[in-house]
Amino acid sequence: MSDWIGRLASIAFIAAVGALLAGWLLGPVFASLFLFAYLVAVVAIGLRARVRLAKWLAHPSPDDMPDDDGPWGEIYARLHRILREQTASRASLSHALWRFRQAGEAMPDGVLVLDADDRIEWLNPSAEDHFGLTFKRDRGQAVTNLIRSPAFVDYLAAQNYGEPLLLKGLVETDRVLSVNLVPYGNHEKLLLSRDVTRWERLESMRRDFIANVSHELRTPLTVLRGFLETLSDARASDEKVYRRSLELMTGQAERMQRLVEDLLMLSRLEDSRYPLKEEAVDVPALLHAVLLEAEGINRGQHRIASRVAPAWLLASREEIRSAFTNLVTNAIRYTPAGGDILVSWGVEDGAPVLSVRDNGEGIAPEHIPRLTERFYRVDRSRSRSSGGTGLGLAIVKHVLQRHQGRLEITSEPGEGSTFSCVFPATRLAPASGRSAEVTPIRAA
Q1: Which of the residues 14, 16, 98, 270 has an alpha carbon 20 to 30 A from that of 186?
Q2: What architecture (CATH level 2) is domain 201-270?
Q3: Residues with Cβ < 8 Å from 262, sequence gap 6 or more?
């Protein structure tokens, strides 16, 4: 304020001095003319500056800022400083918004921003994938017009956002989403979504596992209890009843023992604290022992042939033996009598491979992805009668995972099946302290 008073005083002083000089030199009339001309010049300069300022304010830019001296120059300088600060602030906010969107787009969870009327303001690519939406197409649309699940509409209307909602089959029939609404600001909301399909599948498998274990144990226990009651009521002289009952109870007890042993094996394989004890395994000798045991189960029902190359493996002997035994015994159990089984061991494309092939009934394609699930059976009744626990292929899968290998299954209904354990080339080991002479497997 004092600055402007000083400037007005300067203008008045200049006008007074000029008028006095003009009056003293040229007379009173010229003094009045000087004052008039001076005031007109001051007003014109002010109007010119105001016009330049109004034109600049229509399209403000630091590069086109008017340049002037005097009081208007200070105004321009201050405006220039304010504009520069606003430009920097706007650039900082734009960068922060860009980083927020980049972070939101990189999130694996879906993020969908809703306004106070539940209309879509923004969503990231994960949300587009989860709900089948597109930002450019669906921006500004009411979310309930696009996500038509009655459960979601009720969840949004209830405004009870303490617990997430599970939605199934919005885009893909087998996908399960966990969605959660988070209110913020002035009645806006964040819709967060997470793909929990895998966790729901694991939970379903856990429930099935408990149910199957209970069923598998309940059946032999029921048999044992029934025969114990029979023996209690039988006459001491009824030797046939005793012998038959004891045979059946022994069989059921062995079945429970196999089940418990397989469960313990799976537990050890899945326990990260259980170390992998590696050694150079003489696979030809190991397979010879496995096939001798298999003949005891086979009892001449199938023709079992083998083609074994002298390749050793760096692995856990116990785990590899369990995996190989399960594959061979599975082939015996699920191949009709009179069928052929071929066990091959060697190197294919530099990788050690064990293959067990049969010419049995084969497996339909829809069953193959689930064969390594615990207790999964293509033919539940027949596999139980064959004596299997339903855990064999699950054990094989976990053994191979611990050895960085994989299980490959090829099968055609009516043509038979081939189960192959493929190990990495780094698992090849020298035989008896010298390099193994490896013979590639030839097609049968």
Answers
A1: 98
A2: Orthogonal Bundle (1.10)
A3: 389, 391, 392, 395
Strand order in the sheet with 120-123: 120-123, 110-114, 188-195, 176-184, 165-168
Identify whether the C-beta of residue 378 lies closer than 8 Å to the C-beta of residue 363.
Answer: yes
Give the Å distances, CA to CA, from 134 to 139, 140, 149, 196.
8, 11, 18, 22
**Token pair of 128, please?**
């587009």
Pick the CATH number of 107-195 from 2.40.340.10, 3.30.450.20, 3.40.630.100, 3.40.50.12780: 3.30.450.20
177 vs 170: CA distance, rounded Å:
9
Please state whether the predicted TM-score (pTM) of the whole model is above 0.85: no
Q: Name the CATH code of domain 279-429 (choices 3.30.565.10, 3.40.50.1820, 3.40.50.150, 3.90.850.10).
A: 3.30.565.10
* Burial state string for 347-386 with b = 16 or more CB within 10 A and e = fewer than 16: beeeebbbbbbbbbbbbeeeeeeebbbbbbbbeeeebbee
Q: Which residue, 192, 197, 190, 189, is CA-closest to 171?
A: 197
- The residues spanned by each domain of the chain are 2-100, 107-195, 201-270, 279-429
Among the listed residues 204, 332, 417, 292, the one whose alpha carbon sits nearest the alpha carbon of residue 407: 417
pLDDT in tens, the chain (444 residues): 445 455 555 666 666 666 666 666 666 666 666 666 666 666 666 677 777 777 766 777 666 666 666 666 667 677 777 777 777 777 777 676 667 666 666 677 888 888 888 899 888 888 888 888 888 888 888 888 888 888 888 888 887 777 788 888 777 777 888 888 888 878 888 888 888 888 777 777 777 666 667 666 777 777 777 777 777 666 655 677 777 777 777 777 777 777 777 777 777 777 767 788 889 999 999 999 999 988 878 888 889 999 999 999 999 999 999 999 999 988 988 888 889 999 999 999 889 999 999 988 888 888 888 888 877 777 655 545 555 667 888 889 999 999 999 999 999 888 899 999 999 999 998 875 443 344 444 433
Under 8 Å between Cβ of 191 and 198: no
- Amino acid identity, residue 181? L
Nearest-angstrom CA–CA distance, 148 and 169 = 12
Positive or negative: CA dihedral 335, 340, 345, 348: negative
* Structure tokens given for 401: 């995972």
